């Protein structure tokens, strides 16, 4: 456990010292308040959460995961990393948990900023119950999106860089936008987060069990594939 915590601390230090994390957080905050004043508090908060169900989740979290895993290859430090007296499974786990923790931090920070804007601009209809309702949906959507980072990190490891996984993340966004309004959307993992938000007016979990299992299974397969690739494939 101490080795895993050390791996998380090291990866977090790398991420904090990069422009990627802070640039992405700044982008999240900027986009989340672009439409302030165009409607009431419910519409503003729903738009902020929708961004995480689409662009922020699929492309933002995906790009962060791609950088954390892919930069070792572009900086040519992967061989040095694998030579350390740390199991390869812990290296993969440490990197992914770092992505998970900092994605969660950015999510909470962005939502907190949106709530602050609601109070400062005194948007009509704002209430604590509404803020809690959208926070619950945001955390569910964030969890689904983080599972969908599993295939992203697998593509980063296989392609030995971060350009291919970022391209993959953009492609998944396009698929989600195209298929989200069709019957197929409930069974494609990248469409599920937006459908979760769309149906959340009546219940916390509006979709069938299969719709939640699919993104979770997709993420697990991606992470298992990443671990297997790092564990058994020669690093040349």
What is shown here, in short?
This protein has one domain. It is 76% helix and 0% strand. The chain is built from 11 helices and no strands.
Account of the 3D structure:
The chain is mostly helical. The protein has one domain. The protein has eleven helices and no strands. The radius of gyration is 18 Å and the shape is globular.
Supply database-style keywords:
236 residues; mainly alpha; 11 helices
Quaternary state of the chains: single chain
Specify the biggest β-sheet: none
Helix and strand run? HHHHHHHHHHH
Radius of gyration computed on alpha carbons? 18 Å
Distance between the termini: 29 Å
Give the structural class: mainly alpha
Q: What is the number of beta strands?
A: 0
Tell me roughly what share of residues is in helical segments.
over 70%
Structural domain tally = 1
Estimate what percentage of residues fall within beta strands. Answer: under 5%
- Number of H/I helices: 11
Organism: Paenibacillus mesotrionivorans
Protein name: ABC transporter permease
Q: How is the topology of this model organized?
A:
Layout: H1 2-16, H2 19-32, H3 41-53, H4 55-74, H5 78-82, H6 88-120, H7 128-147, H8 149-159, H9 163-179, H10 192-198, H11 209-232
Helix pairs in contact: 1-6, 2-4, 2-6, 3-4, 3-6, 3-7, 3-10, 4-6, 4-7, 4-8, 4-9, 6-7, 7-10, 7-11, 8-9, 8-11
């Amino acid at each position: 456990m101490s080795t895993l915590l050390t791996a998380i601390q090291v990866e977090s230090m790398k991420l904090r010292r990069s422009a990627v994390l802070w640039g992405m957080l700044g982008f999240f905050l900027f986009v989340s308040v672009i439409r302030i004043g165009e409607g009431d508090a419910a519409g503003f908060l729903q738009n902020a959460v929708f961004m995480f169900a689409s662009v922020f989740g699929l492309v933002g979290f995906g790009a962060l995961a791609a950088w954390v895993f892919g930069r070792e290859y572009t900086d040519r430090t992967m061989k040095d990393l694998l030579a350390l007296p740390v199991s390869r499974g812990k290296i993969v786990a440490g990197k992914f948990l770092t992505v998970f923790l900092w994605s969660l931090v950015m999510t909470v920070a962005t939502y907190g900023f949106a709530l602050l804007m609601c109070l400062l601009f005194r948007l009509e209809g704002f209430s604590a119950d509404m803020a809690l309702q959208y926070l619950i949906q945001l955390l569910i959507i964030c969890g689904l999106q983080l599972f969908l980072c599993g295939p992203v990190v697998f593509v980063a490891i296989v392609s030995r860089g971060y350009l291919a996984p970022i391209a993959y993340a953009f492609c998944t966004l396009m698929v989600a936008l195209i298929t989200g309004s069709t019957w197929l959307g409930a069974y494609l993992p990248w469409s599920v987060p937006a459908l979760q938000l769309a149906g959340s007016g009546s219940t916390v979990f509006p979709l069938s069990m299969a719709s939640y299992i699919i993104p979770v299974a997709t993420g697990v397969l991606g992470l298992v594939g990443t671990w297997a690739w790092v564990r058994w494939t020669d690093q040349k």
